[in-house]
Design a protein that fits this description.
The chain has 349 residues and is α/β, with parallel strands linked by helices. The chain is built from 12 helices and 14 strands. The radius of gyration is 20 Å and the shape is globular.
């Protein structure tokens, strides 16, 4: 029976990858990553999308800025429409198992972006983090299994590995430092199990630190620093600023998601999606200050505060596996990405 299920899913997947028209379910589609992926998706031809979001972070206006949509009440959700270029929006939570099952009906691919994000929120409320990132992911995997969805892409994080000697690679043992890292690792483990037991073609992407236009609501370092600088406030660095990160521009990330969803032969795999470049927070801030100064925001103050519980000191990725299997690599360097991001914040705020 298991071999039959794998064969059946492989047949469905082959159809999906060779079909001009793909129907996508995108969870968390009103957030920064979600709206950016919808924009990327709808810039092509032959795609339709259903966005499922509980509006805890993004809102309808964020989605409407990237593409027009029709809204369907949760109780009226039915099989996805094959209409090319259509975006349907459903207000709903990934914790609603029955809704997840209905929302995935007719989908060719699920891009699962909805999550409790960040180290600090997971430290404050580990149970909430677990429910969203583990049970919520399980609900969507079940929806994929029961609806014969061709590909399931999970947004994961380098935090799943924890405190390891960089560069981060897919074959390193995982020792999460934060509850957030633990919940993302559990999501990856369920993806592996659903591929090997049920034949659901899962792909987990461990994102670096994502930044770029559209991140107005995001509370990550780059977005937060730009907002504070524009408001004349000091930039606060946790610790001494020597901690390193791998900052990836949003357009590079959405291209990786697209390849993960449509490349043959990568079911069950995990990929590091970043720039293969180690940048300290202090170095990023100096580059950002230069960018801000060039845009007219000068003499930005920087303060150092206490280290944050659960943070790792060094974090950057070896992305060679993504290059070999997905044919993907990042293309936007940090100075150019910061310039585009500051320009976007100034144009919208």
């Amino acid at each position: 029976m298991r071999l039959f299920r794998r064969f059946l899913n492989a047949e469905v997947h082959e159809f999906v990858l060779s079909s001009l028209l793909m129907k996508w379910l995108i969870t968390g589609g009103c957030g920064f990553l979600g709206t950016s992926f919808v924009r990327r998706l709808m810039a092509g031809e032959g795609h339709s999308a259903r966005v499922l979001d509980n509006l805890s972070v993004g809102d309808r206006e964020d989605l409407g800025r990237v593409h027009s949509f029709t809204e369907t009440p949760p109780e009226e959700v039915a099989r996805m429409s094959p209409e090319s270029g259509a975006v349907e929006f459903v207000v709903g939570d990934i914790m609603d198992e029955a809704l997840a099952l209905r929302a995935a009906e007719g989908a060719d691919a699920i891009v699962h972006l909805a999550a409790n994000t960040g180290v600090a929120p997971s430290v404050e409320d580990p149970r909430k983090d677990c429910l969203s990132n583990v049970v919520g992911t399980l609900n969507l995997l079940e929806a994929a299994r029961h609806n014969g969805v061709g590909r399931f892409v999970l947004a994961s994080s380098g935090a799943a590995l924890g405190e390891v000697e960089p560069p981060l690679r897919e074959d390193l043992p995982s020792r999460p430092v934060s509850p957030y890292g633990a919940s993302k690792l559990a999501g990856e483990a369920y993806c592996s199990a659903y591929f090997r037991t049920f034949g659901v073609e899962t792909v987990a992407l461990r994102f670096g630190n994502v930044y770029g236009p559209g991140s107005g609501r995001k509370n990550s370092a780059v977005a937060k620093f730009i907002r504070r600088a524009m408001n004349g406030e000091a930039l606060e660095i946790y610790g001494d600023g020597t901690q390193t990160r791998d900052f990836i521009y949003i357009d590079d990330l959405t291209e990786a998601v697209m390849k993960a969803a449509t490349t043959r032969g990568v079911g069950g795999e995990v990929f590091q999606i970043a720039t293969n470049s180690e940048t300290s927070v202090e170095e990023m801030v100096e580059e950002l200050k230069n960018t801000l100064a060039a845009s007219g925001i000068k003499n930005t103050e920087v303060r150092r505060t206490s280290p944050r519980q659960g943070d790792v000191m060094r974090n950057y990725s070896d992305t060679s596996k993504a290059g070999e299997m997905l044919g993907w690599q990042s293309s936007v360097a940090l100075p150019e990405g910061l310039r585009r991001t500051v320009e976007w914040f100034q144009s919208t705020g």
